[in-house]
Structures are given as C-alpha cells and as structure tokens.
Please model this.
Amino acid sequence: PQVNQAVIVPTRASDPYHAMKQFSYGGDQTTVTSKQSARSVIKKVTTRKGEENVWCEPISAIHDLKEGQRVVVSRIAGNEFGMVKIINATIDKKKGYIGVELDLSSGSSDGEVKGRRYFTCAPNHAAFVLLKSIFKIVQ
Model:
C-alpha cells in the first residue's frame, strides 16, 4: 500500500515523542514520531516495574539482527525486553531460531537446550524464538 504523510500533530510537552506524524497506510491511520516509519507499532512490554509502551518495528530479515542488540520479544504470555545472544540457532534440526536473554525470569532455560549450550544466562532467562517474534526497538 501507498504511504501518504498527512499532517504533523503537536502533542503535550510531557510527551516524550514531541511532534507526531499522521500516516495513512492502506486506509488505516497510524501515528508515529519522526524517528518511526509507517511500519512502527506500539508494543506494551512487561518490565520489573510494570508495563511500558515501546515503539517497535518488525524485523524482516535475519541479517538485520546483531548479537547484543536490545529487542522486544513477543510471546504468548506477553511482550518482554531481551538481548540477542545467538542468531540462527539450530534446534531439533530446525534452523532460524534466535536465542534471547530475557530481562525477566520467564524463559525456559539458562541458554541450554536438549544438552547443547548456546549461551549462558541466569536460570529461566533464555528464550529461543523465531524471527517473527522479534521486534527492533525504535527510539
């Protein structure tokens, strides 16, 4: 769909996003800051202090990820912050898993899966997810 920038909407001074831009994308109205694109979305992320709204973008290709990059991981239980530890891990003969160390202890391991160590982190802080579950933080 064609993206048409329509209008700049001023926001409250306390708003960290200052001036927002309205985009029309495939008939839907989306509000993003000058740092975001029409692909940007707001994800509600669970943190130790509660929940936080974060601007994110889906990652379209595995080569757009870097080890050590901070990301938002979208999981059934909710969205969480994490750090990419390994890219394109093979688990059960399936390639393409991203190993992420989660900020909260809601993962499934300490970086080891079925006897193979991919990385080391605190117990229950590791998650292995597919690319479609990873979002780049846009700030």
